[in-house]
Design brief:
The protein has 275 residues and is an alpha+beta fold. The protein folds into two domains: 1-51; 86-271, Porin. It has three helices and nine strands, in the order αβββαβαβββββ. It has helices at residues 2-40, 136-139, 177-183, and strands at 86-98, 103-115, 121-134, 154-165, 186-198, 209-225, 233-249, 254-256, 259-271. Strands 1-2-3-4-5-6-7-9 form an eight-stranded antiparallel β-barrel. The termini are far apart.
């Protein structure tokens, strides 16, 4: 017993020395870590009493509003790439060749076209002017009295709508100028009203006659992009054939105004939908 009592001071001294050693190691390690954090700028400043904020209790009666991008007025981001949806302003011109009379001439038109999504179809509203004169043989034809028998001029003013149907719309997946051109091939059905003015012939005399009549037409068209169509807009070339049918029922003469319409034009096409 006395032996153990005599050994206790020594054991306590050794234990104290061991604890002091490990404490020194821990303190040294903390100092090194603190120095490294300070060197790297990772040591954060302590939060002071002034910077701390008191806890705000939850109010069950408070209205919580979640605002979407549309409610905040953000515009929808449409792709600039051409996917078949577009609106277009165009002008065309070409030949008007009568199929059942001796008149032919030229035409011009202007219109606006809007496509359905994915180029399933499109609809164009347009005005066209036809300037028709008799051919050389008819223009020189005279009656027994030596008077010219044919009207020297026929003018047509027509306003109509034209529905285009694109059977190859899936070719848009080709994403190339050739694919866009082939996908633009379309059949066309048109309808509207036409006001025809016929100048009197020398033989029949009288005044100019003007008559309003309906018309229908069928045709086929092709459009070709001139520049890259995937930048949001591009000019396009228009090629069109149309079979146009209408009647002229005048006081002096009555005849059909059936024509082959050949046109080439230029359109400015903007990708996306107008509305």
């Amino acid at each position: 017993m006395n032996f153990m009592i005599d050994r206790q001071p020594a054991l306590l001294a050794k234990s104290a020395a061991t604890l002091s050693f490990f404490a020194a190691l821990l303190l040294g390690a903390q100092g090194v870590a603190a120095q490294e954090n300070a060197d790297q700028g990772e040591l954060s400043k302590p939060i002071t009493v002034e910077e701390s904020k008191p806890h705000q209790p939850f109010d069950p009666d408070q209205e919580i509003k979640i605002e979407t991008d549309a409610e905040l007025g953000a515009e929808r981001d449409y792709s600039k790439q051409y996917n078949g949806s577009f609106y277009e302003y165009s002008a065309r011109g070409g030949l008007s060749l009568s199929s059942n009379s001796e008149y032919s001439g030229w035409n011009i038109d202007a219109g606006m076209r809007h496509a359905f999504p994915a180029l399933l179809g499109d609809f164009r509203v347009a005005y066209r002017y036809d300037h028709l004169t008799p051919n050389r043989a008819a223009g020189d034809r005279r009656n027994s009295a030596g008077q010219l028998t044919h009207s020297p001029l026929m003018q047509n003013h027509s306003v109509g709508g034209y529905l285009g149907i694109h059977p190859g719309y899936l070719l848009l997946l080709g994403n190339s100028r050739l694919a866009y051109t082939l996908a633009s091939l379309h059949a066309e059905i048109g309808f509207g009203a036409e006001y025809s003015i016929v100048e009197p012939s020398e033989a029949k005399g009288g005044e100019s006659q003007g008559k309003l009549a309906p018309f229908v037409s069928v045709g086929v068209g092709l459009n070709i992009p001139i520049t890259n169509a995937d930048v949001g807009y591009a000019p396009w070339i228009h090629l069109l054939y149309r079979w146009h049918v209408s009647d002229f029922n005048g006081d002096v003469e009555t005849f059909d105004v059936n024509m082959h319409i050949l046109q080439i034009g230029l359109g400015w096409r903007v990708n996306g939908l107008l509305f």
